[in-house]
Amino acid sequence: MLTLREIKNLLSGELLTPEMNLEMECPRVFASDLMSDVLAFMDPGSILVTGLVNTHVIRTARLADVTAIVFVQGKRPDAMVMNEAKLHNLPIISTSCSMFEACSRISRSFPDGGR
Fold this sequence. Notes:
Radius of gyration: 12 Å
CATH architecture: 3-Layer(aba) Sandwich
Largest sheet: 5 strands, mixed
CATH class: Alpha Beta
Structural class: alpha/beta
Order of helices and strands: EHEEEHEHEHEH
Mean pLDDT: 93
Helix content: 25-40%
CATH superfamily: HprK N-terminal domain-like
């Protein structure tokens, strides 16, 4: 199992919510831009890797019990999205990696491939 700090480092990511705990354990990763898939298929406690940067992502993450969100392609959410994430103690990381590269880096570090 990886910590959020380890995932941030694997992705050369930037923590956009610096007040959040990076020592939390992250048992799974789920990547999707379809929030309906997040709700239907993601295991609770997973990290969500996505290219969507809107408030719908934060609301879906709350419903699906997401541990943290990683935004790919260097995308950065606007202030409204960040405020909602902070309000609900949801760590946000931004990485310049593509979704494929982010998932590849993370899965290589999980004993079971992050499944």
